[in-house]
Amino acid sequence: MNRFERHHAGPGLWKKLASAAFFLGVLALFWMGLDSLSGVTARQEAEGLKNSILQSAVHCYALEGFYPDSLDYLREHYGLTYDTDKYIVAYEIIGSNLMPDVSVIAKS
After folding, report:
1. What does the pLDDT look like over 31-85, one tens digit per residue?
2. Which of 29, 36, 60, 96 is most deeply buried (CB count within 10 A of its CB)?
3. Could you give the C-alpha distances from 96 to 35, 57, 71, in angstroms and in order?
4. Is residue 105 classed as helix, strand or coil in its secondary structure?
5. What is the DSSP string of 11-63?
6. Domain annotation covers residue 32
7. Is 45 within a domain?
8. SS3 of 65, please?
9. Residue 18 falls within a domain, yes or no?
10. Which domain holds residue 92?
11. pLDDT (tens digit, 9 = 90+) per residue, 88-99?
């Protein structure tokens, strides 16, 4: 090597930096996709729980002639189970002959 020649960072360094940036970009997109997918799954689980509660209430009405006055009644007599650490369930009675209002919220 001649002492008057400059030593340049060759194209190899730029290729490595471009590859690393591309990899980080793909990794970020993958992470965002997983995060979005988990949000959709959580909403679907909450909706499924709400449907199960309403089905149990309708089943009770069909067999006994009234909608249950609490979730405890559904747990005891109709086998309703759910993770109380994961969901908050609001079960509001309107009347014994009117379907209750059910709201399910996932805890974060």
Report:
1. 888 777 777 788 889 999 999 999 999 999 999 999 999 999 999 999 999 999 9
2. 60
3. 42, 11, 14
4. strand
5. HHHHHHHHHHHHHHHHHHHHHHHHHHHHHHHHHHHHHHHHHHHHHHHHHHHHH
6. yes
7. yes
8. coil
9. yes
10. 12-106
11. 999 999 888 899
